[in-house]
Amino acid sequence: MQLVEALCNKDDYSNIPGLWVKKSDGSIAKNEMLMLTENLDALPLPDFRNMQSSYVIENEKCRNEEPYYNDSLTHYNFITARGCPFRCDFCSNSIFYPMFKGKGRILRQRSVDNVIKELKNAKQHFKKLSSVSCNDELFGLDFSWLNEFCEKYKKEIGLSFHCDMHPSYVTEEKIAALAKMGLQTISMGIQSGVERTRLEVFGRNTPDSIILNAATLFKKYKVFPSYDLILDNPLENEEDVRKTLYFMLQLPGRFSLNVSVL
């Protein structure tokens, strides 16, 4: 917002916190990071009331239209929290911790009522909405929060639900509560079927037993999972690739894969 206002007013923006700015003399202003917003409930909710003022730039042309949040929308994405408790070596969160040291709490959570209010607003505006997806880094950290959310979501929203979870935080009480609420699909990171790679290379404390337990719970509660894998890893050999294949074949039930390359 500060940058937009400075540009509109043709003011100097080289001292705005959170920016690195290359000046006309070639020097670079490396400004401090902004403090993290800790009270997420204080942030405004999405406003869908005046979508005719939306613009999209595509194929080098600017058009006065809203390509996504329109009457055809059937799936809505949202977040309930910011930050992640893990620092996996392949993930940007491993960089954010030192970057924002002393700038506030990394892990921040919206209240259940604040989230429900956003979803009710979306459901009211988009009549064809049939499913929603929570895109938190890691959904369901706090079970008391999750339990309250499940109760209010089932009562006030009632749409098909998707979320992302970490294997270490998958428990039977969580999956049971989510399945009862309307959880249909879930995404979970495995990254490699080789335990050594996860523990020693990726800095990811997820032994085989934890992943197998999570997959077993998904099948038990009829939740369809998508598993994340990282391939083309120069620190793995051909035998490691075979181990990943064999490990994936041990997972119970049907699933889909979301594959990235290193």
Task: Briefly summarize what is shown.
This protein is of the alpha/beta class and 262 residues long. The protein has eight helices and twelve strands.
List the helices and strands and how they pair.
Blueprint: H1 2-9, E1 20-22, E2 28-30, E3 56-58, E4 61-63, E5 75-78, E6 81-82, H2 93-99, E7 108-109, H3 112-125, E8 131-134, H4 143-156, E9 160-165, H5 172-181, E10 183-191, H6 195-201, H7 208-220, E11 224-231, H8 238-250, E12 256-261
Parallel strand pairs: 5-8, 8-9, 9-10, 10-11, 11-12
Antiparallel strand pairs: 1-2, 3-4, 6-7
User: Describe the biggest sheet?
Assistant: 6 strands, parallel
Q: Would you give the CATH topology?
A: TIM Barrel
> Can you give the helix content as a percent range?
25-40%
Parts with pLDDT < 50 across at least 5 consecutive residues: none
Order of strands in the sheet with most strands: 5-8-9-10-11-12
Distance between the termini: 34 Å
The CATH top-level class label: Alpha Beta
Order of H and E elements: HEEEEEEHEHEHEHEHHEHE
CATH superfamily: Aldolase class I
Envelope shape: globular
Number of helices: 8
Q: How many strands?
A: 12
- Which class of secondary structure composition applies to the elements? alpha/beta
Q: Rg to the nearest angstrom?
A: 22 Å
Q: How much strand content do the residues show?
A: 15-25%
The chain-level mean pLDDT equals 94
